[in-house]
Amino acid sequence: MALRWFAVYALLEIAAFVAMAMTLGFPWAVLITIGAGVLGFLTLRRQGRKVFGELRRAADNQVDPREPLADTAVVAASTLLLVIPGVVSTAVGMLMLFPPTRKLLRPLVAVLAARRAATLMDRAGLYATGTYRRTSVTVDGSVVDGAVVDAAGSGTQGPGAGPAPLITPQLPPTR
């Protein structure tokens, strides 16, 4: 499924670049692609400073932490999109940096974070939500009856008969 999404993304990026190259010419398409990336990074610096300043204020209990945390997640996603080369990913990444877009994306970030947290808590066994189901594994095999003898051969048998001998791993000699 992930490979299918990647193929769709790659085709979209290639189609956008080819359309831009056919319309404006190849040198202009390359220049616009590079320029959009540079403009995206400059916008990221400015907006990133604002978001991390708000996150600092939230850490000092000066503001409610929900909005700065969601904005930080959106800025992180936009950074990833700006780093990936391509016209479409750069445009979407730049769009995600602007405050009105971040405000629209906050509920989506909250839903995704809650779903991920519930899954992780369920995996840890803290409570069952039904989002993650453990499967039991049955191993076919046979049980061998007998006594446990330690490696030194001292004859102690059974678990708890004494401390296990300390075995240090030996590396092969170097030439």
From TrEMBL:
Domain of life: Bacteria
Keyword annotations from UniProtKB, A to Z: Membrane, Transmembrane, Transmembrane helix
Coiled coil spans: none
Keyword Transmembrane helix applies: yes
InterPro entries: FxsA (IPR007313)
One Pfam family in the UniProt entry: FxsA
Keyword Transmembrane assigned: yes
Membrane-crossing segments per the record: 12-42, 73-98
Region feature Disordered, mapped onto this chain: 153-175
NCBIfam families attached to this UniProt entry: PRK11463.1-2
Identification of the protein by name: FxsA protein
Species per Swiss-Prot/TrEMBL record: Gordonia paraffinivorans NBRC 108238
